[in-house]
Amino acid sequence: MKLFKTPISTPLLTIIVAAVVFLLVQFFGLFLQTANKNIQNYYKVKSGVASDEIIVVEIDEDTLSRLGRFPFSRDKYAPVITHLHDAGAAVIGFDIIFADTSDAEADTAFSEAIRSAGNVVLGVFLSPSGAIEKPLDIFADYALGLGYFHPIVNPRNNTVYSLSPAKEFRSGERYDHFSMVLLKAYYSYIYGQDYLSYASQDEASYSVTPNIKVPLSMPGRNEMLIHFIDAAWFSRVSFYDVYEERNFDVLKEKVDFKDKIVMIGATAKGIKDVFTTPNGIDYGVYVHANAVNTVLEKTFFNYFNIPLEKILIFLLIVLSVYFNLSRSSYILILSNIAIAVIFLIIFPLLIATFTISLLNYPAEIILGLIFSLAISNIAKYMLENRSKIKLNTALSEYVSKDIAEEILSGEGNVNLNGEKKKIGIFFSDIAGFTTISEKFSPEQLVEFLREYLGEMSNIIMDQRGFINKYEGDAIMGLWGVFGHETTSSFDCCMAALKQQERLRELNSLWKEKYKEELRVRMGMHVGEAIIGNIGAKGRKMEFTALGDSVNLGSRLEGVNKFYGTYLCVSESIYEEVKEQFEFRYLDKIRVKGKEIPVNIYELLSVKDGLDVRKADIMEKFATALEFYFLRKFEDARTILEPLVVLGDAPSRVFLERCKMYAAQSPTDDWDGVWTMEEK
After folding, report:
1. Would the pLDDT of 585 be above 80?
2. Residues 378, 383, 384, 387: is their CA dihedral positive or negative?
């Protein structure tokens, strides 16, 4: 543990986190590669515009319904080529394979149209067997150029992100990609130069023309990233409207084909020329259209510099570990949020937007963040937990374990500077303790008190109470000071009953050991009090409760002496927990030093916990009190006398009063309130 207190904790943990991330990359490389690609789909900027120079001619459902099943007779393509050429199209590209012989007359018509137009680009196809399928010679010989169709399909998620601008096949033949051939044909047409035979590619770029370079995704990698936009953004027309002369005459009024790159491809449902792209499912013709659009609009992408990205990941780990080892919870929370937002949202978007780059390792960035948070927090927990355990142990000497944990967790909302709060108040005192203590030697007295106070205090704290102070044999306890305000009355009563029960057990032992038995009087009240620290700041402070509620709780403990009871509670406690405990209404009194009378009750047991004999006494006592307060003292006396014989102490108190009032009736303004002359 001392290791985590040294200045090398941040570098050490950084190395540990980096090592964990590195090992995960080694073990889960394939999974992370797939994750990286999927994450890049979200980070990649998909906004943009479709070039006005591109028109897509769709072989759609309307075309098939009019011309028949696809692929249809090749003579159907001849008028389309003628119409587009006559309309001034710069280049016409077919995203269709023409490798098989069909009807000779139809093939001838198609071939003648290609020859006459002189601006048609066709494609070659790599079959699953590895053979190159080329257009028939009668088509290829007259085509302006040939390009291969295939984009690069990522094997991890079967998604198209890119293409190779030029590729050499196993046969030794080399072809430019179909989209690059279209672009070369287009620029040859625009600039009046022959760029179709131009071939130039270095480590960083592929050249369409000497002045138009396509940046590769990464130096040395034969890959161009495609900036995908929505297919609906392109200018699109139906193949049938171009094929049918009357329809085309109308179409030309709306669409200008002059000097345009026209791509023809199948888009009808059920035709399987489709690919998964960052936009979702796209037809092959739109993969080519997006590739051409990327170059025309110069919305190129590439991958971020790998060494620099690795340095940034390491920096992320350093920052995360450093701030997570901070002792300030505010710094911890804010730094974690800031780091997550910067590295997972702002940083990737800024790179994608302003550098037109994609992160290579977004999954590793996320892993680095997760593990730096996890490992540094584990270390922080190990570092702080020891101190917390010590503090918890010390605090548990004064309050119950669950309250101590609540305070340390910050859930107790403790204000030690002073506040007004509703709390439960408990006072206890051993009856006749002065006489008892005279029989002990000093050592025996200390031992006895330690045992008694320990047993009673444990019960109070186990019931979520706070031991406020000891005064000799007296105990002052509080509930609701550090939480659990709603259960203060219940906890206070339950603790008192448990203490009396434990006293009965202890008395059997003390009678044999010390020749003494204890009778402990307890007073309880719940009400508002001022709680906080008092004393000499910096030298001697005490956390306590002050106010009338505290004084009343203390007085109620003393009231027991007068009524011969041991558990006296205020009306406020009675009203809150009368459905959970058994009480006996004792009297309406005016305690010493107070003018306002209060109703007091004797706490007897938990609800339905009285035996038949005790319940009968309580019922008769309640009837006697009704007669007493109605001034029917003789009727009350008749009930009370048998109860006194049974040993009921409160009955003896009221029997004496009945005798007194029978001899001398109270005044007319008598309200039944008894004024206590003693504390």
Report:
1. yes
2. positive
β-strand partners of 426? 477, 524
Q: Give the tens place of pLDDT for each residue, 210-246.
A: 999 999 988 888 999 998 989 999 999 999 999 999 9
Q: Quote the CA–CA distance of 655 and 633 in Å, as a whole number.
A: 9
Q: What is the mean pLDDT of residues 485-505?
A: 93
Token digits of residue 186: 């287009």
Q: Which phi and psi (to 5°) does residue 672 adopt? A: 85, -5
pLDDT higher than 60, residue 410: no
**Residue among 431, 572, 428, 432 at smallest CA distance from 496:** 428
Is the distance from CB of 542 to CB of 535 less than 8 angstroms?
yes
How many CA atoms lie within 13 Å of 351's alpha carbon, on the beta-carbon side? 22
Which secondary-structure segment (H or E) carries 145? strand 145-148
Q: How many Å apart are CA 205 and CA 215, to the nearest integer? A: 4
Residues β-bridged to residue 536: 540
CB atoms within 10 A of CB 658: 23
Share of the chain above pLDDT 90, in %: 52
CA atoms of 52 and 521, how far apart (whole Å): 97
3-state class of 331 per DSSP?
helix
Contacts of 72 (CB under 8 A, 6+ apart): 64
Give Cα separations from 493 to 69, 102, 130, 191, 583 (angstroms).
90, 100, 88, 99, 11
Q: Count of residues for the chain?
A: 679
The single-letter code of the amino acid at 310 is K
Torsion-angle region of residue 50: left (phi > 0), alpha (psi -120 to 50) or beta?
A: beta
- Mind spelling out the 3-state secondary structure of 176-192? EEHHHHHHHHHHHHHHC
**Alpha-carbon span 93 to 549, nearest angstrom:** 94
Strands 261-266 and 54-59: parallel
Answer for the pair 91, 121: CB distance below 8 angstroms, yes or no: yes
| Residues 631, 97: Cα–Cα separation, whole Å | 117
Q: Is the Cβ–Cβ distance between 410 and 355 less than 8 Å?
A: no
Q: Could you give the dihedral angle defined by the CA atoms of residues 62, 68, 74 and 76, in that order, rounded to the nearest 10 degrees?
A: -50
- Those residues whose C-beta lies under 8 Å from the C-beta of residue 182, and which sit 6 or more positions away, are 91, 93, 121, 147, 261, 263, 288, 292
- Closest by CA position to 529, among listed 581, 598, 477: 477
Helix, strand, coil abundance in the chain, percent, nearest 5: 50, 20, 30
DSSP state letter for 203: S
> In terms of pLDDT, which residue wins out, 636 or 356?
636
